[in-house]
Amino acid sequence: MRMDTRLRLGTVITALVTPFRNDRLDLAMLERLAERQINSGIDGLAVCTVTGEGPTLSPTERAAIIRTCVRVAAGRVPVIAATGTNATSTTIALTLEARKLGADAALVTVPYYAKPGQKGIVHHLEQVAAESDLPVIIDDNPSRCASSLAPESLDALAPVERILGIVHSGGAARLAPRLRRRFVSLSSDDASALSFLACGGDGMLSSGANVEPRLFASLHRLAKTGNVAAATALHDRLQPLIRALAEDGSPAPVKYALHVLLGTSPDVRLPMVGLDTTEKAAVFAALTGLAESRRQARAV
């Protein structure tokens, strides 16, 4: 492993969007977005995730994204490649490819659609970890996968040293103390991030951090240093934006917000679609409200 075994995961990792222009991968913009995240204090980049429209990417595009982000990061933050599929052999192949391209860890989802039992999920993750020396982070998202990793299964995976952590799709980190000590726990639900951290979670895999990386990094820092009042106030300020960005569960609101702030293309790929007029207005209003709250805070 090229980094320490914790990979600095107990922090804020951005599930980076994949910029397209006229349905083609925009690598120049990807470089700009990755650099912005790093300069804003984000502690890691997760690429080819659902937020990054990973299922729509060709093998060539996936390789270009990973290679580009590894080059931009230049060891400053880890680059985590989403390699999980519902086929163990394909997941292993994508993980080996990510390792070859320089990724620092693999984000491996619980297999979706097929709905394997707990034994199948455990064997799937064991095999992926055994076939590559790339550290593995489990992505447990029942709403997307129709399967969930039971606590007993996570217990069974504890001896697999290469499995470093788990991403929870929502709620608090309800793990036994021994599992909290063994695995890094991250939340992928921005709306409940503060309560997750308060209940023992280590950090976030955030889509909202694409838009406001400094504020999400600050939220984590305040929460983990025990500044509850300031963390709560910042979380409250972020809530309207978080709600607007999560409205339809796609990266389209995030991309539209980036379009407003940075002039990037808001293009998404089917089956995702762009925002309608009402949805755009909601995102714009949330951005405007956050900017106003920032102005008022500076004036105090």
Architecture overview:
- The chain contains 12 helices and 10 strands.
- It is an alpha/beta fold.
- The protein has a single domain, classed as Aldolase class I (TIM Barrel, Alpha-Beta Barrel), CATH 3.20.20.70.
- The protein has an 8-stranded parallel barrel, surrounded by 5 helices.
- α4 packs parallel to α6 (151-157) and α11 crosses α12.
- The radius of gyration is 18 Å and the shape is globular.
- The termini are far apart.
- The model is unreliable at 1-5 (pLDDT under 50).
How do the strands and helices of this protein lay out in sequence?
Blueprint: E1 12-15, E2 20-21, E3 24-25, H1 27-39, E4 44-47, H2 59-73, E5 79-82, H3 88-101, E6 105-109, H4 118-131, E7 136-140, H5 142-145, H6 151-157, E8 163-168, H7 177-182, E9 184-187, H8 193-198, E10 203-206, H9 213-224, H10 228-245, H11 252-262, H12 277-299
Tell me the CATH architecture: Alpha-Beta Barrel
Looking at this structure, what is the CATH superfamily? Aldolase class I
**Helical amount among residues, as a percent range?**
40-55%
Mean pLDDT: 92
Rg over C-alpha atoms, rounded to the nearest angstrom: 18 Å
Strand content: 5-15%
Multimeric organization: single chain
The helix count comes to 12
The geometry reads as globular
- End-to-end gap: 47 Å
Instruction: Give the helices and strands as they follow along the chain.
Output: EEEHEHEHEHEHHEHEHEHHHH
The CATH class assignment is Alpha Beta
Structural class label = alpha/beta
**Which spans have pLDDT < 50 for at least 5 consecutive residues?**
1-5
